[in-house]
Amino acid sequence: MQVLVYGAGQLAQMMYLDGAALGINVMAVDVNNNTVVHPVSKSPLDCTLEQAIELADALTVEFEHVPETLLEQAQASGKLYPGIEAILVGADRVREKQLLSGLDIPNCPYQIVDDLAQLDECVARLGERLIIKASRDGYDGYGQWRLKAASDLPALKTQLANLDLQAVPLVVEKMLNFDREVSLIGARSKSGEVVVYPLAENLHHEGQLHVSVAPATNSTEALTEQACDIFTKLVNGMDYVGVLAVELFQCGDELLVNELAPRVHNSGHWSQAGSPTSQFENNLRAVLDLPLGLAVNTGGEASVSAMINIIGCDDHKLALLGIGGTHLHWYGKTVRPKRKMGHINVTASDYAALGEKLSALAGYLSLEHFPQLQEEAARLAASN
């Protein structure tokens, strides 16, 4: 069986590695030049994009910002999972908000803005503390601005003056005092089978995910049920096939959707070591309509997990592998500031043991690049 992935980054690479164990061949498309490449070596393969589409049993994506012409060609094959509409929802915050509102799914109060003069109305309606997001091409904190006081509005308008808001409107959201961010990742197959992973708790720094812990601490049955209800509404409402990530804000006992990602997701990387079936394998299973694998551990050494992103550096020490239950995943990229270079997965029997392992891990890392690690280690060590 063969799967063609649009995008040739680390997510395609990890799908390839999991697929190989099942005898599934994964190819990737470099969407910058429409070249079919090997997902690990990035070497061009001896076939055209049209031939690769013909050979593949299923097509999928590793990120949502694929040129629409390529998505339309993929959709025409009848093999693209998820479908083009679901992918475009992930690429456009206006479409995303329309979907959430149409399915009556709670999300942050917002207003769509295509003229800077409308920002005054946003302040009057949503309050003076706002998050302003470009509706397309924003990620990892890029394409976002914050308004903390109405007196700063004139300066913000000046900063945004050169944007073409008719082409790319803004989504303006009320800045919430949420307790934490969590995410739910699950998979739905072509035949409608669904599995969901435990809620993960996510810690960010400067707009980027730095640490995920799963299952999230202090997760009640009611909270998990609420997240699963949201996920089920989404996948059924979109007739979705593949892995879907739902990022959520927890405000007291209520969950509000922050963002959707129609693909495997950074906050699910912990599943490589902390789950019987990784998100990457389940994505392949889902798009090929194979039986989905278990997503939840029943106990043992890997009962709790953490994922630590390696961002903008390559100066970690490989001796960290001596910490029990620790796995390194390296992407083979050239170092750049804020670039995700790899990640580390750590598993343990409980949160206290996980905290101890993260504290030990800190000794092998340059902590200026891991600002959340020591604080999270201390929190987990005290949480049992």
From TrEMBL:
Q: What GO biological process, any one, is recorded here?
A: 'de novo' IMP biosynthetic process
- Give the EC number(s) under which this enzyme is classified: 6.3.4.18
Q: Please give one Gene Ontology molecular function term for this protein.
A: metal ion binding
InterPro entries found in the cross-reference section: ATP-grasp, ATP-grasp_carboxylate-amine, ATP_grasp_subdomain_1, PreATP-grasp_dom_sf, PurK, PurK_C, PurT/PurK_preATP-grasp, Rudment_hybrid_motif
Q: Which UniProt keywords apply?
A: ATP-binding, Ligase, Nucleotide-binding, Purine biosynthesis
Q: Does the keyword ATP-binding apply?
A: yes
Role description: Catalyzes the ATP-dependent conversion of 5-aminoimidazole ribonucleotide (AIR) and HCO(3)(-) to N5-carboxyaminoimidazole ribonucleotide (N5-CAIR).
Protein name in UniProt: N5-carboxyaminoimidazole ribonucleotide synthase
Q: Which organism is it from?
A: Alteromonas lipolytica
Q: Which gene encodes it?
A: purK
